[in-house]
Amino acid sequence: MNSKRTLATAACAALAVVSLAACGSGSSDNSAGSSGSDKALSTVTFWDPYPQYDDSSDWAKYVEACAPAGTTLKRTAVPNGDVLNSLTTAVKEGTAPDVVLLDNPAVPDAAASGLLVDAKTAGIDTSGPDANLAGPGTVDGVSYGVPIGANTLGLYYNADILKKDGVDPASIKDWASLDAALAKVKAGGDGGITFAGISGEEGTFQFLPWFWGAGAKLQDPGSDAAVAAGQLVSDWIGKGYAPKSAATDNQSASWDLFLTGKYAFAENGSWFAKAATEQKFKAVMMPIPAKDGGAAPVPTGGEFAVAPLQKKDASAHYAAANQIIDCLVGSGHQVKTDDQLGYFAASASERKAQIDSDPMWGPWANAITSAQGRTSDLGPDYTATSGAVSTAEQAALNAAGDAGSVKKAFEDAAGSLQ
Amino acid sequence: MSMTLLEKSAARRPARTGDATARRRRLMRPGVLAGIGFVSPLVAYMALFYAYPLYENVSMSLHRFTRATYVTGEAPWAGSAIYREVIASPQFWPTVSHTATFVVVSLVFQYSIGLALAVFFQRHFPLSGVLRGLFLVPWLLPIIVSGTTWQWMMDADSGVINRLIGVFGVDPVWWLNTDHSLWAVIIANIWLGVPFNLVILYSGLQNISPDLYEAAAIDGAGPWRQFWSITFPLLKPVSAITLLLGFVYTLKVVDIIWIMTRGTGASQTLATWAYSMAFGKGASAVIKYSEASVVGSILLLIALCMGFVYLAVQRRQEA
After folding, report:
1. How many CB atoms lie within 10 A of CB A115?
2. Is the residue at B302 inside a domain?
3. Model confidence over B52-109: pLDDT tens digits?
4. Which ipTM was obtained for this model?
5. How far apart, in whole angstroms, are the C-alpha atoms of residue A12 and residue B261?
């Protein structure tokens, strides 16, 4: 467990160094020194946020094979948290890559800051993906890219523990029955639920199913429904259902805790679906329950393929971007790309084929269809709201059940956005 | 050590350079041109890597920079408005007080533990060299490793520290929560800083003549008296530089705090606050370049003030 956690933290915290390095290496690029208009490119550049795949990985080779004819593709993996900052610098220096896979909540911020070229100008076809998954790529009615695929959150449970403690998973339909199940497993001497409450976007992502599931809206993070969601997770800490480390755990760390086999539930992503099938205990996924029953709306995760603004040889760069993106997510290519990443295909028809071919994905089908884009309601303003919600959740977790503090935390969050 | 050598040459200098005409004549020698030639790379380096970033930092704190600034180049002049906003923000004074606690408590413990260990290791005993080497481990470990280990040891539910204090009947502490996180990172930072203090103070001790201790022993001074009347006063110049460097290092600590708590709650210091705003990480999701440079400039000012305090202390010691 430790080494995994160390690695995850290492990746997160190598931030400063990497972002500096990225500033430096951003200029090793395409068509250096070219002048005048639209020279043919010999090298195209591609950024993705998957440093776990090195240059010899299948993913790297797969991407490199997408180079437009007559060019070679140079892939750079940038840690997810640093992509936007590195891109900002690269666009400023005129050395932006041809294609970037940008985390979906960052797309509106990047678009509003003028870092991206819109899909129409670049000629990118955005008609394929489902509306709920394509949502984050549309800002003020203008589309900026296509989802490379999508993932979302579910509630994994350890079937062995539930059986031992006499909890029927089918009985968990709303928050009350979930809390009842948690109380039972705690009484049985087992751990309750692991989740990632870490400060920042990752924590907000994991909090949103509860936030939305209570009926809260991102436009009003101070509402009673928002407070109810905060109270839910706060009580988990207070009653000992969730480990206190949830306040500092990221998704890998909380997953590692679940894999110890000591916890009954884990809120985590579809990207762990395959790992879940390979455990010593039986790990099963169920949709995250909403407060009053039914499945809670879950946020979509995953990256968008976008074309950054180019200062030189713009049309040649955009044409190259278009070809690369079509090669990765054009119709007929999505499943192959997304199987590599453990993502769902973004268009319904392709996703159906993908889900049908592997029973592991079955329980996820509805979750991904009903998932919501994080930025769909607020656009570029999401970033600030996400920060405020994260701060409020942190305070709620620290309050360990104290209702007054939880209420104040969310009211403060709403106040800080005015 | 080098400190004392520097002081000696400083003491000698007035006598040699007293003659003003000799100095003027020397300035006009052709060798001076060569001297300037040799100095210019250093000056260029300083300008490029120190003066320019410093200028950019201050300029950024006086203009409103957003992410879009990088594309449009528009950064309206704000004057001191951003400084006033940062200082008026509800986070400012609590953050200053966390920073002060973090720096002062860290320094006091790092220095006193470092000094105690240095004095302890001055008496050579079997394996003292090996032991002294082992004390350097915190310094040599990558902070990502030691920070994560501390985070793991301070885990509220299954951490080894809580289990240890449980043996003595103390209730488990939620080390990394809002209220306790400042103390958690201070503890880790003290551990991290002791080797630095140990190394510098130990080498400072080597410069104190053993004769003094012998003479004191003959006069009947005990170890306690020897420490306060010989070791401590003679170590003052070394202590001053250790504390100054320690102050500057501690003031700008981001890594250990960020790894353990992401600067949440009471562990937010000026440095982690600036970091989170500059990169849009942690609690500050929106990138705030200008506000971050304001905090950066404030940190620089504090460090600069400490530098002057150090100079004043040194001058008083020489006088």
Report:
1. 27
2. no
3. 999 999 999 999 988 888 888 788 888 889 999 999 998 899 999 999 999 999 999 9
4. 0.77
5. 12
CATH value at residue B159? 1.10.3720.10
Q: Average pLDDT for residues B243-268, to the nearest whole number?
A: 91
- Rounded Cα–Cα distance for residues B236 and B204 (Å): 9
Phi/psi at A77 (5° precision): -95, 125
Give CA–CA dist A250/B111, Å, rounded.
Answer: 35
Scanning every residue of chain B, which has its alpha carbon at the shortest distance from the alpha carbon of A238?
A: B174
DSSP letter (8 states) at residue A57: S
Comparing C-alpha atoms, which of A327, A332, A355, A378 is closest to residue A150?
A355
Subunit contact A247:B285, Cβ cutoff 8 A: no
Of chain A, the percentage scoring pLDDT greater than 90 comes to 57
Cross-strand partners of A150: A344
Given a cut of 90, is residue A287 above it in pLDDT?
yes
Q: Which residues from A are below 8 Å from B when comparing CB atoms? A: 2, 5-6, 9-10, 13-16, 19, 81-82, 84-85, 88-89, 91-92, 109-110, 112-115, 198-201, 243-245, 247-248, 309, 383-384, 386-387, 390-391, 394-395, 398, 400
Residue B300 one-letter amino acid: L
Residue indicated by tokens 């010899």: A56
> B83 lies in a domain?
no
**CA nearest B67 in A: which residue?**
A113
CA–CA separation, B68 and B6 (whole Å): 50
Strand order through the sheet with A191-194 = A191-194, A263-269, A153-158, A283-286
- DSSP track, A104-158: TTHHHHHHHTT-B--HHHHT----SS-HHHHGGGEETTEE-EEES-BB-EEEEEE
Q: Which residues of A touch B175 (CB under 8 A)?
A: none
B127: region left, alpha or beta (phi > 0 left; psi from -120 to 50 alpha): left
Dihedrals φ, ψ of B38, to 5°?
Answer: -70, -30
Spell B235-250 as b/e; 16+ CB within 10 A means b.
bebbbbebbbebbbbb
Q: Which domain holds residue B120?
A: 92-267
Distance from CA of B269 to the nearest CA of A (A): 16
> Total domain count for chain B?
1
Taking only the tens place, the pLDDT of each residue in B6-38 is 444 444 444 444 566 666 666 667 788 888 889
With respect to residue B203, please indicate whether it lies within any of the assigned structural domains.
Answer: yes
Q: Per the domain annotation, does B286 fall within a domain?
A: no
Distance from CA of A116 to the nearest CA of B (A): 10
Query: Is residue B183 predicted with pLDDT exceeding 60?
Result: yes
* Chain A residue numbers touching B281 (CB-CB < 8 A): 15, 81, 200
For each of the domains in chain A, give its residue range(s) and CATH number, in order of start: 14-19+39-147+301-370 (3.40.190.10), 153-299+376-416 (3.40.190.10)
Q: Chain B: residue nearest A5 by CA?
A: B148
Nearest-Cα distance to chain A for B178, in Å, is 6
